[in-house]
Design brief:
This protein is about 30% helix and about 25% strand. By secondary structure, the protein is of the alpha/beta class. Strand 3, helix 2 and strand 4 form a beta-alpha-beta unit.
Amino acid sequence: MKKIIFENAQNQPLELSISHDVFEPNTTTRLLINSVLSIIDSKKKILDLGCGTAAVAISLFKEGVSGNKIYASDLSQEATECCLENAKGHNCDADIRTGSMFEPWLNEKFDVVVDDISAISEDIAKISPWFPGVPCDTGRDGTDLVSSIITNATKHLYADESLFFFPVLSLSNVDQILHEAKKNFKYVEIVKREAWPLPEDLVPHMPLLEKLSDENSIKFEKKFGMVICYTEVYCASNKKFF
C-alpha cells in the first residue's frame, strides 16, 4: 500500500493508505462529504457504501456526525483491507465488510446511507483514468448499479426521516437515475452541484461520447471551447428534510 493525502470537507489533509486496485477519493468524494455535512449536524449511524479507502466514513467520523463507530463496505477485498488500516490509523472503531452493494448488510439499518458506487457509463469508465483495475459494471448508460442500490436502499434505512445520499455524474443517464429515485422516495432534492471540464485523457474519445450522448446515455455541453460535465449529489428521503 502507498500513502496519499486527501483534503476532506474542511480542506484538512487526511492521510490514507491505498493499494493499486482501489478507487482513489476525488472531487465526487469531497462533494458527498460536504453534502452530508450541509444537512446532518448530529451523530447518526452512517453507512459508507462502496467505500474505497473509507475517506467518506473517516471524514464524517472526524466531523463528529457518525457516532462512535464507522460502517463501511466495498466489493473489493483490497478496498476493505485499506479501510481497516485507515480506520486503525485514525483511531476509528469500525465495522468493515466485503460484498456487493447491500449484501453485507442484510439485517442492518442506518440513519444515513452514503452511496459512493459509480454511476458512470461503463464504456467511459473503461477508457477513463479513474478506474485502474477497479470493476465498474454499470452498463452502457451507467445506471445498472445505482438503480439497484436505490431500489433496495429503503430496506436499510430506519424510518421516514432517514436519508440516502447519492452522486450522479452527467456521464450517465441522469434522467433515468432520478426517475428511479423518485419511484422509491417521496422527496429527492439536489444538495450540491459542481461542473468540470472533460479530462484530457477522454478528449480523443469524443466520437464515443457523441454517440452515447445521441443515445441519451450521457450528458455534456460544449462551452468556451471545452466539453463541460457535472457531478450532482442528491439526498432522498420519505420525509421532507429541506
